[in-house]
Write a structure and sequence with these properties.
single chain; alpha+beta; 5 helices; elongated
């Protein structure tokens, strides 16, 4: 029987709140300790790896967390941009094709394509869930904190 660490790709799936990020971090750290080059890949997730590994913030560009361990937290718009630049090769051409109003409206009209087109991903809330104040530190993750009347000064 082969070990999970012998696999080239391991997917950790499950419903929200069941510990996917925790399990993924543990498997990734164990794999990296075994000398395997490991990438923790999440999409549209709240960054938990930064606190798990006391490392840099994980965004749409891969970052090193430890030796042999990297992480990325991408989204559909960033992925489409990366692919578009890979195919079109020039940022100016990419912007002319994908970031013009006509293309954005066309892409918005395609059912189910919202998550895959630049500029059409629903915006993140700009108010805290509990108090309604813009970017409230009581209600928002630390990465986007600002102060509000409910927050300690």
């Amino acid at each position: 029987m082969s070990s999970i660490f012998d696999k080239r790709l391991v997917l950790v799936l499950g419903k929200g709140g069941v510990g996917r990020s925790t399990v993924t971090a543990a498997l990734g750290a164990a794999s990296a300790r075994r000398g395997r080059s490991t990438l923790l890949f999440e999409t549209n997730a709240r960054d938990r790896y930064q606190q798990f590994f006391a490392g840099p913030e994980v965004g749409t560009e891969p970052v090193a967390l430890r030796e042999n361990l990297h992480a990325v937290n991408t989204n559909a718009a960033a992925s489409l941009r990366e692919y578009g630049l890979m195919v079109l090769r020039f940022e100016r051409v990419y912007k002319m094709v994908f970031e013009n109003r006509l293309t954005k409206h066309f892409l918005r009209a395609i059912p189910g394509l919202d998550d895959y087109s630049p500029g059409t991903t629903p915006p993140r809330p700009t108010t805290g869930a509990a108090c309604g104040t813009p970017l409230c530190s009581t209600c928002r993750p630390a990465a986007t904190r600002s102060r509000c009347s409910r927050s300690p000064r």
